[in-house]
């Protein structure tokens, strides 16, 4: 009944269905991995206020070369809550322009924190609004505290699409926070990610607005994973359904006990018309008309008409 599956056409269709299903399952697994990765990031974001901060040196590899950034901690450690102590270096402070918080545009202020071992980590102290005079005016930034400072914050990876670094308002000015580019402006080794400040000792100036952290859309990846797996099932189901339909069509004459109906050929309309005309001509030739009798019939009909008048 299913011997047709061994034909080249059906073997090719089976191979195509299996390959398509395998690819779709792999895509679904990749989306599942992204879902798990983003869910872990969201968990670290949500737990930041309740978990104990770990030392900075345990979360990130220490940098070694002056003017260069250390290794990035990677997405697995993004938003990890860390703590460290040192002294701020306000002479190399950075302002990231065009930053929006609660619908308002302003600046994020990043200040290097120099640790006891001579390395430094960039600390995003918070957001300040754009001055009333406009973007051309220098923002009002509270000075960094002098002396030893202990900061607690979350690891923030470098932003994508780095932009040029300029000198403006006595600070380094940039649109995107790229640690590797900013490290080139520093005289000391810089850690491979920066810290988004959540608390500080002594306390951070209240003029700063804490930077909100957006959650990852993990459920979108979860939905895509299920979608790809369903597509894989549909590809295999479509092959099985088509094969079953083919088998049923092949078995119909045998199960009904009737001989297979001969194929009906379409008639040639022109030939059929010619055949009919020829038949009419032959019929006329086989039954000749009696002209005398026909003439009498006509005269009789004319006389009846005259009498009726």
From TrEMBL:
Q: Where in the cell is it found?
A: Cell membrane; Membrane
Q: What is its main location?
A: membrane
Where are the residues of the annotated region Disordered? 249-309
InterPro entries hit by this protein: Surf1/Shy1 (IPR002994), Surf1/Surf4 (IPR045214)
Transmembrane as a keyword?
yes
Annotated TM spans: 12-32, 226-243
Keyword Magnesium set for record: no
Q: Which residues form a coiled coil?
A: none
The UniProt keyword set, sorted, is:
Cell membrane, Membrane, Transmembrane, Transmembrane helix
**Which membrane topology term applies here?**
Multi-pass membrane protein
Instruction: Give the compositionally biased regions (Basic and acidic residues).
Output: 265-280, 288-302
Extract the PANTHER family matched here. Answer: SURFEIT LOCUS PROTEIN, SURFEIT LOCUS PROTEIN 1
User: Its family?
Assistant: Belongs to the SURF1 family.
For this entry, the protein name equals SURF1-like protein
């Amino acid at each position: 009944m299913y011997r047709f599956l061994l034909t080249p056409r059906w073997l090719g269709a089976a191979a195509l269905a299996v390959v398509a299903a395998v690819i779709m399952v792999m895509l679904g697994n990749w989306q599942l991995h992204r879902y798990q990765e983003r869910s872990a990031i969201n968990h670290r974001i949500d737990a930041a206020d309740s978990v104990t901060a770990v030392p900075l040196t345990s979360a990130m590899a220490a940098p070694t070369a002056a003017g260069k950034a250390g290794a990035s901690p990677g997405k697995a450690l993004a938003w990890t809550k860390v703590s460290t102590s040192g002294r701020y270096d306000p002479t190399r402070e950075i302002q990231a322009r065009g930053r929006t918080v609660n619908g308002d545009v302003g600046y994020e202020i990043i200040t290097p924190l120099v640790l006891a071992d001579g390395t430094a980590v960039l600390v995003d102290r918070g957001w300040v609004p754009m001055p009333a005079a406009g973007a051309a005016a220098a923002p009002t930034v509270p000075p960094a505290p002098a002396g030893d400072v202990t900061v607690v914050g979350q690891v923030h990876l470098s932003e994508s699409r780095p932009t040029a670094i300029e000198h403006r308002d006595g600070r380094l000015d940039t649109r995107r926070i790229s640690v590797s580019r900013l490290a080139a402006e520093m005289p000391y080794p810089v850690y491979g990610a920066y810290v988004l400040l959540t608390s500080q000792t002594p306390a951070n100036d209240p003029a700063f607005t804490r930077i909100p952290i957006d959650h990852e859309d993990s459920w979108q990846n979860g939905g895509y994973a299920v979608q790809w797996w369903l597509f894989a099932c549909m590809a295999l189901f479509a092959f099985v359904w088509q094969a079953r339909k083919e088998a049923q069509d092949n078995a119909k004459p045998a199960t009904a006990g009737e001989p297979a109906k001969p194929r009906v050929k379409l008639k040639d309309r022109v030939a059929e018309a010619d055949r009919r005309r020829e038949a009419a001509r032959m019929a006329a030739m086989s039954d000749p008309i009696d002209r005398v009798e026909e003439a009498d019939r006509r005269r009789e009909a004319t006389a009846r008409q005259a009498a009726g008048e």
